[in-house]
Design brief:
27% helix, 40 strands, 16 helices, alpha+beta, single chain, 821 residues, elongated, six-stranded antiparallel beta sheet
């Protein structure tokens, strides 16, 4: 050993929470309750003098969900002991609720982290530290959620598989300045099982990231399986050499401190139990190194006390910690759509601001908990990709989806109860066609809203059908509101357009039209005897080549589809020069497997594809106007695309507002090979426009407002993307598929964010709707029917944050419901 320093090694012993990766979700919940009980038992035996070799044992709860789960299942005696050991520092608390993706909304996230704050206050032990393991980042707004709930120190131990730590260097502290200007002290740590690779957990060692002379013999089972004596001796040998080499390397790299933290699990698995043998090994190592290396088990608070004491010059960085692992949501697009619908309903309920009774509070809590559990980072069982037929794989997939379904159901029931307070009635035989319309948003909205006439309804005593003329009237002003009908499976949708102030409510009714306009014949030359209107006329065109409104001119090309979108008020093109793909067209990628589902995916690294990936672009097959009226014109574009049975774009171009809505409808083939599906969104506010997007609790400029060394290839959005230039704003709201990709789709060396990457910020945008590339726990089968909705608008007089609020309103819509006559 050639160490120059005297080292302190801090060991944080925890169990990584991965709900559904190693076992069914309900079993994992039971495990984590029992792991805390096991830790208490170990401490009780130590204090009773029964396990003197394990003195110094400390257990760290990785997240507060573990503690909540423990309280729901443990006895009063264990709860008493738990609180006692928290106060003595032998059990540590974490203010983080779970290891999350950025699907979660800021409101739901805050409600869960607040639980840890309130718990600490209740037991007289404030929760000031938190940790996350495995995940490769979190939205910038996460920092504010932590800080505002008292968590001012945060330990991250990321997993650089298909990802990477930020700042180009791990094992270092930094202050993470939040969007609100607060500072959270972060330790940017190493891999969360590194302590196991150093064999600090007896019979819990591993070889994964460390590639030394022991790596190949270990994975080929040539060592550690000869005899128990041989195993123990080899663990000692491997552990000592690896630890000493790790510390020597830190010295060679001029690492400035004489301490280092490692996370360690009791066994080499996620969801691992505690092990008293870790403390025994620590005590053995201290005897072996005789002060040259001192190992100490600590909790998070104790570790950060040492950081604050020893690290005097800590740099500060401001920006988003973009998550490399956010793309798991693309492997379950159907369940994610259900989740997003529930998330929108939850947000609408919050905006309605109605007084909540006990039942509403219970539904709100049920919705929030299920949304957290679905947005938690585990996206399936560990063999989902290599054994997609396994019963446990399918079972865990459905249970995971049930969190989205249950969260949506609870939010729906909560919303229904609040709407009932607003006067909503259930259907009845002679209910009439009177509706209350509410703008629940904090911004003014000009939008369409649908009123429904059920297929069995009578209007003013007449059995309704679409040939009977109707009109929509404002019940207060008497105004007749322009409307347009569209048949659905079980009702007629009557769409009207309204301009509504924030929180405004209006009452309207549908009634029979007072007059029916009938035109039997016209003298103007517009249609021939065969009934085909194919003559070019003066005025605003509406045909297969052009749809024009007072605000937009949309041109169509018979090869690509949409080839131009002009804002007439600006006199400017909204599509990028030299765009590779038409708006809302599809791009499909697939990579041959050669029989090995795991290896081809592993070798893709951070690209999520390889140079062998085949890329296909959709080919336009047909185009035509399918609806025309006072509210909008609808154009249907039918494409052929590899990997899909059909690919259709239903495009609505509104007459009296600057809004275009596209519904992309896909029948996806079932394919086991790694694949990606993208939808092109080549919009821009100008060549120098700046892109903005919203993530959990923040608005960022991708490629600019990020931590150095973070991912800038793709992002998990909350609502949409904004392009801004010289006061002109173009928005694209993503309703159903929250992943966005900037830049060229080809595989290439990954360019990490420099913190000021304006070029990447201005690159083309794609909606990344599906992928199954991960080699372990993504859903392998993407086959099925899907619809993804996007809304594009133009505006002035708004800043990007305000424009993103309009994206949120576009996704959530106006509320319309039946009321009494």
């Amino acid at each position: 050993m050639a160490l120059k320093k005297t080292w302190t090694v801090y060991l944080i012993h925890h169990s990584h929470t991965d709900i559904g990766y190693t076992e069914r979700q309900d079993k994992i919940m039971r495990y984590h309750c029992d792991f805390i009980i096991q830790a208490i038992d170990i401490l009780n035996r130590i204090h009773a003098g029964e396990e003197k070799k394990a003195e110094g044992f400390v257990w760290q709860c990785e997240n507060f969900w573990q503690v909540k789960n423990f309280y729901e299942n443990a006895s009063e005696e264990y709860i008493r002991d738990f609180e006692m050991y928290v106060r003595t520092g032998e059990i540590g608390l974490s203010g983080n609720y779970l290891n999350m993706t950025e699907l979660v909304s800021a409101e739901v996230l805050d409600s869960r982290i607040r639980m840890a704050k309130e718990y600490g206050e209740r037991i007289g032990h404030p929760v000031t530290s938190g940790m996350c393991a495995d995940v490769n980042g979190m939205a910038w707004g996460y920092g504010d959620a932590l800080y505002e709930n008292g968590v001012t120190s945060f330990f991250t131990c990321i997993h650089p598989h298909h990802g990477m730590f930020p700042l180009y260097m791990k094992q270092q502290p930094f202050y993470w300045e939040t969007p609100k200007g607060k500072r959270v002290l972060v330790w940017n740590g190493d891999y969360y099982h590194l302590g196991n690779e150093l064999f600090i957990a007896p019979h819990g060692g591993n070889t994964y990231q460390i590639r030394d002379e022991y790596h190949e013999p270990f994975i080929s089972h040539m060592i550690l399986n000869r005899s128990s004596e041989n195993t123990d001796q080899m663990e000692w040998e491997i552990g000592q050499k690896r630890l000493e080499r790790y510390l020597e390397n830190l010295e060679e790299e001029s690492y400035p401190w004489n301490f280092i933290p490692f996370m360690v699990s009791g066994c080499i698995t996620d969801n691992a139990p505690p092990s008293a043998a870790v403390a025994e090994r620590v005590n053995e190592m201290n005897q072996r190194y005789n002060g040259q290396i001192t190992c100490k088990m600590v909790n998070l608070e104790q570790f950060f006390d040492s950081v604050k004491e020893q690290c005097k010059e800590i740099p500060c960085y401001r920006g988003d910690w973009n998550d490399w692992w956010a793309d798991g949501v693309g492997s379950t697009p159907a369940a994610v759509k259900v989740y997003l619908d529930g998330r929108r309903k939850y947000d609408i309920c919050e905006k309605l601001g109605e007084e909540e009774g006990e039942r509403e509070k219970a539904l709100k809590e049920e919705a929030a908990e299920n949304m957290m559990l679905y947005a938690e980072h585990t996206w399936g069982y560990s063999s989902s990709v290599i054994e997609p037929w396994e019963s446990l794989v399918g079972s865990l997939e459905w249970k995971k989806a049930s969190y989205a379904v249950n969260g949506n159901s609870a939010a729906s029931k909560w919303l229904d109860r609040l709407l009932a307070k607003k006067g909503e009635i259930s259907i009845c035989r002679d209910k009439g066609q009177r509706y209350r319309i509410i703008n629940p948003h904090n911004v003014a909205v000009k939008d369409g809203v649908c009123l429904y006439i059920e297929l069995w309804e009578y209007v003013e005593g007449i059995r309704y059908d679409t040939e009977i003329p109707i009109e929509v009237r404002d019940c207060v002003t008497g105004e007749i509101i322009p409307s347009q009908i569209h048949m659905t499976a079980r009702a007629t949708a009557v769409e009207i357009m309204l301009t509504m102030k924030p929180k405004e409510e209006r009452i309207v009714e549908i009634r029979l039209a007072s007059q029916r306009k009938t035109v039997t014949y016209e003298n103007r030359a517009h249609v021939g005897a065969e009934g085909v209107a194919d003559l070019l006329e003066d005025g605003m065109r509406k045909d297969d080549g052009c749809v024009e409104t007072p605000y937009y001119q949309v041109l169509f090309d018979q090869e690509k589809g949409i080839c131009s979108v002009k804002d007439k008020l600006w006199g400017r093109e909204l599509l990028r020069n030299g765009m590779a793909d038409a708006p809302f067209s599809g791009i499909y990628e697939v990579t041959g497997m050669n029989g090995d589902a795991r290896e081809i995916r592993r070798s893709m690294g951070r690209n999520r594809k390889s140079t062998a990936t085949k890329r296909y672009h959709s080919v336009l097959e047909n185009i035509g106007i399918v609806e025309r009226g006072d509210v909008y014109t609808a154009v249907q574009l039918s494409y052929s695309l590899e990997g899909c049975r059909f690919y259709t774009v239903y495009l609505k171009i509104y007459e009296e507002m600057r809004k275009i809505e596209a519904r992309v409808r896909i029948h996806k083939d079932s394919v086991w090979e790694p694949e990606n599906l993208y939808i092109a969104l080549p919009f821009t506010a100008g060549e120098a426009s700046v892109s903005y997007l919203d993530k959990t609790g923040c608005v960022i400029r991708p490629g600019i407002d990020q931590l150095p060394g973070s991912c800038q290839d793709f992002y998990l959005l909350q609502n949409g993307v904004v392009w801004e230039q010289e006061g002109r704003i173009v928005t694209a709201a993503f309703k159903d598929a929250p992943m966005a990709v900037f830049g060229d789709l080809k595989a290439a060396p990954v360019r990490l964010c420099s913190g000021e990457d304006g070029d990447r910020n201005r690159e083309p945008l794609y909606s990344w709707v599906m992928n199954n590339f991960w080699e372990t726990n993504f859903k392998a089968d993407l086959g099925g029917f899907y619809e993804f909705t996007y809304t594009v608008r133009t505006m002035e007089g708004k800043n990007p944050a305000e424009a993103l609020e309009i994206c949120e309103a576009d996704n959530e819509g106006l509320l319309a419901f039946y009321i009494e006559k």
